[in-house]
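Project standup — Tuesday

K.O.: blocked on the structure for the chain from last sprint. Re-posting the sequence here as requested.
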Amino acid sequence: MALPSFDGRSIAEPLELGVVGEEAATYAAGTIALDIAVSKVIVTLTTGTWPADIANRGYITLPDTKVYAIASRTSNTVIVLETDYESTTFTLQSYTATYYTATVNAVGSYAKDTTWGAGSGDVLGAANFVWKMYHSTLKIHNMDAEVNKGRERLFDIVAIKMRNGMRGLRKTLATDFYSSQADGGNGMVGLRAICAETGLVGDIQKRKYGWWQGNVKAAGAVDLSWALLNEMWFKTKKFGNADPATLILCSQGVLQKYEDNLSKVVVTGASGTGYPNIYMQMQADKARKIFDGGFAGFSFKQIPMTSDLFCPTGNLFFVNENYIHWRLLKAFESTGWQQLRSQGKDWAQLTIFGYGAMTAAACNKFGQISGLNEA
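H.V.: unblocked you, prediction finished:
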């Protein structure tokens, strides 16, 4: 079987939240003025009006090739861009706006002679992900093999090498899972690339579709709070069936800091303040009474929160497991020991290898909160 990187095969990930193909495009050239006094860029038309379809369905390209996704339409002449403008000054200049018309599925009751209508749901769109290759190569010098002759002793060496090799391979996979690697690199498409608001993932430009744009919140050196979690909770359930994330992953220091703050509120509190909904439970059949002031587990709106050793420092991720998959083309297996010569030394070499890829069906179902304080 030819290797995936040679024959060019890719994974077609079905998309349930939209159509990949461009439905319609309208280009309007003119002059705009930007209000940079607020956190988001405000684009006000001097002539003409914005169509309703432009909200969350398009982007603006300026003459300097800077591209900004459209976040919302506040009136028929004003739209808000998703990305902050990079400069502190702006002069009137021409622009090109690209947007896509909405198609609505035909639903409701029918008469016997009614012709069924066609909608965007009749088109099966797909994102294309390229297969990736992962490996771990192990070596045993022939001198070690000679000293440890005998099936039992050599088997012990091989077992240790294999165990360490698989640990290294798992570490690589776990690290790459959180990477910002998008289309085009050697590693899998990482979670930070899926969460990003712009970029090319699955051969789809994020800026073209609201349901393909992830959610990123730069917290800016603050402690994890209920407000930050709640904001991301609403953002990640905007599309689809409004289904929320199924898992929240964060670095160990972020979760520890969150527990420290929460413990002070629940257990200590302000002087003279009571908490009637907090109870101390004791076992009646034990003479020894135990009060535990810590937390055994966390959840946010019934979404499990857990720390991960490989999660980047100061980060937290909202993950919806229904829209992310590890696709396996070839399970990990080994080449078996082969006698090879390398750099003038004799080695027995074994390579563990396998092929797979991380795919997503709707990037908007994922979110990243960065810049959080660690304990």
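K.O.: great, moving the ticket to review. The radius of gyration is 27 Å. The first strand starts at residue 10 and ends at 15.
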